Amino acid sequence: NVVAKDKREVARVYLGIAIMHADKLHVIPVIDRPDNLEYELSAGLLRVTKEHQPTIGWWGPTASGGEVAESGAGQYETVHRQLEQRYTVRTITHDGASVSTKELQALLLVAPKNFTAAQAGAVERYLAEGGKVVALVDRMAVDPRTLTATAVTSGLESLFAKYGVTLNADLVADASSAYAAFGGGTMTIYHPIVARLEQLTFPWVSSLTLADPLPEGLTATALVRSSKQSGLTTEEPPFRVDPDTGMGLLPAMPSPERPLAVVVSGALSGGTSGQLLVVGTSRIIEDRTARQFVDGVIFFENAVDYVALGEQLIGIRSRQVTARPIAPLSDTGRAAIKYLNTFGVPIMVIVAGLLGLVWRRARRRALRIAYNLPS
Questions:
Q1: Do 268 and 276 form a contact (C-beta atoms < 8 A)?
Q2: What pLDDT, in 10s, does the model give residues 129-144?
Q3: What is the pTM of this model?
Q4: Residue 155: which region, alpha, beta or left (left: phi > 0; alpha: psi -120 to 50)?
Q5: Cβ–Cβ under 8 Å, residues 141 and 115
Q6: Main-chain dihedrals φ then ψ at residue 131, nearest 5 degrees
Q7: In 10 A of CB 95, how many CB atoms?
Q8: Which strand (E) or helix (H) includes residue 243?
Q9: Cis (ω within 30 of 0) for the bond into 238?
């Protein structure tokens, strides 16, 4: 029903869009977010114009139930739904026999734990064939009830070390952290994956170390780094990470920025040129995290699209992120702003009043002179 002024009428409206090309059809059932329409249309056009929908492999806890309950990992239904709009998502079995560049455009390693030598070998063969891997790896498990951190192993540490990436068993504490949009960490702004992202929140993230020099034939880029107000855990796990004990992790003076996400390119394992993207946490795509910090899901989807499709959709999706974090201020800068707000505004009002008084007197004097009026 449409009510306008003094009339009422019944109208047929359509809340969705159908995109058709040849014998293919893509339906956007409901357009509930105008800011997302450009991305939905572009993704739909890309899907119907491609001859074959790309296939990616998901090796890790399933989207819901089963392995998730056993492993204690969060569910991944939100990111699964997003990926299935553009890809055929294939779950990789435990032996990794189906991992091949002939079948998969990209391989996603999500929260890998205790990989056997055979499973790590399957990943190595895939990279040697020119495969592209996105690995979200946890080196520390944090119990949300007791806030106790314990070290875990993925079984891929030695493999990634061959490519110049070391997964450190630590946690990064940063003054530029969640619950306030303060931007202090750095991102490689010229790289398509993070080019339009203003901020990222990485829960319980471990640091990465890039070898110097890297193995011959490989190049690496640190996509995301911590801020200069970050620190590392110094205790041997297990240890507690509650605020009462964790504040000592933050350094008093600026410290080195630590890589949190890196991408390595080149002839991995001496084979065809491939790509390996490693992130020091898998929690950025858990449902409970994605609901609060959408920037992590955007980063992950950008990474998947970059290795599987190219750069067609990355810029459009990243424009949806509207957070504009506040740059961190020094003590001097904060004091200057405080005193400017306290004394600057009253002074400006007084100066404006004095200028108005001077202007009125000058105008009055000019009128007396023009009309020969007595003073």
A1: yes
A2: 999 999 999 999 888 7
A3: 0.73
A4: left
A5: no
A6: -70, 165
A7: 11
A8: helix 243-246
A9: yes
